[in-house]
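ok trying again, last paste got cut off:
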Amino acid sequence: MPALTRTTRPARRGRQSAAGLLALAVPLALAGCASADPADGAGSAGSSDQPSSAETAQATEAAAATARVALTYDGGVVVLDAQTLEQVADLPLEGFTRLNPAGDGRHLLASTTGGFRALDLGAWAEAHGDHHHYWTSEPRLTDVTYAAEEPGHVVVHGGRTVLFDDGTGQVRVLDSAHVAEGEAPARELTTPSAHHGVAVELGDDSLLVTEGTEESRSGVRVLDADDQEIAASDDCPGVHGEAVAADEAVVVGCEDGVLVYADGKLTKVQAPDAYGRIGNQAGSEESPVVLGDYKTDPDAELERPTRVSLVDTRSGDLSLVDLPSSYTFRSLARGADGEALVLGTDGSLHVIDPESGKLTTSIPVIDAWEEPVEWQEPRPAVLALDGSVYVTDPATKSVHAVDVESGEVWKSVQLDVAPNEISGVSGDVEASGTDEHDHEAHDDEAHDHEAHDHE
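nice, full thing came through this time. structure:
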C-alpha cells in the first residue's frame, strides 16, 4: 500500500510543549490566554477568517451536571435543556450543518463551510479534588475552526478526537479535553489519496485509518505510535463507518460484511449475502457487540432495510435481526447499558438485547414516517444521552424524551423549526477526556461511539 504522509510526530498523552505548538503548521491562528472566568474554560483560539464571536456570557454555578441537546435546522442550531426540553439558544448558522461530539462533555464540532467549528453548548464541570463544580452559560458558536475542504467524520475515543477531511485525506488527532482551545494536533497525517474516510486512535496510540480514493474504498491499515504499519487489509470493499466496542475492539463496515480490529489483529467477518452492506454502526463500551445496518440490493436507488446486523467482536459472529419496519442511517443508537436501539419508520423505538439478538420491546414514540430520497433531507433521528433517549420528528417539529427502561415517553416539546441532525453533551467531566489520558477503565455512559454516517 502507498505510504501515508506524516505531518507531525505523535505526542504522548497530555498537553504539548510550547515549542511543539510553534513547530506545527496548522491552519489555525492561536490567540488569547486562559481566562480567569470559568465560563471561558482554559482558553480559546480564533481562525483568522472567522468573525469574532461575542464574549462568553457569565457562568452560573449549578447543583448538578446540566446535559444539553442540540438540533440543526435549515439556517441554524437550536439548543435545549436535556431535562426540561426548554430552548436555551437559537444560533444562526448557514448551510447544511452536521453535528459531532467533541469529546469534552461541553462542546460539539459542527461540520460546516470551511471546516470543523467548535460549538459551545454552555454546560460543563470542573474537577476540584474529590468533587466537581458544575457551570452553565449561554451557548455560542466559537471562533475555533479546524480548517477542512470537506469536513467528514469525527471520532471520539479514549480522550482523543480524530478529524477526517474527505477533501484532502488529512487526519488530525486532538486531545479531547482541549479540543475547543484550538491547540495544534497531537498527531497529523495525510492518506495517500483523498476519500470519504474515517480514523480512530486507540489507547496504545495505534491509529486505524481507512484506505481508498475518490472513486472507491478498499480497506484499512493500522499504524503504531510512530506511524509504522502494523496491520492492513484490503478485503473491505466500500469501507464505510466505524464503531468502538468493549475492550477497544473496532468494527468498520464493508459491502460484504465488516472488518474487526482486536488484540492487534484484523479479522474479516463475512456477510451471509454476497452483497451485505454494513455502512453505519453503533458501538458501546458496555458491550462487545456492535449494532449495524444491513442492505442487500446494490442496485437500489434507496433501499429500505428491515434487518439490522449484530457483530460479536469476541467470536467474530455476525447475526441478523428482523424488525417490524424499515429504518435509516440516523436510526441507530446504544442505550446506557449497551442496549441496541433502532428507531423504525413505524414510529417505534425498537430495543434489542445485543447478547441474545432478541427484540425485547418496541416503544411507540411518533407517527409512522417514510424515509426521504435525499440523505440531507430531515428525517426522524435518535440520540442516547445521559440515561435518556431523544427522538426527533421533523413532520411535527417536535422532540421526545424516552425512558427505555420504563418504556415511557416522559417529555415532549414543540419547536418552531423542523429538526434535522441531533447531538448533545453531558455537561460533566468526561472520564475519557482528562488531562492525563491514561486510558484506565472508566464509565463512559454519555458516549456511545456511534458512527456518524450517511449513505
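cool. Residues 9-55, 432-453 have pLDDT under 50 and may be disordered. The two ends are 26 Å apart (CA to CA).
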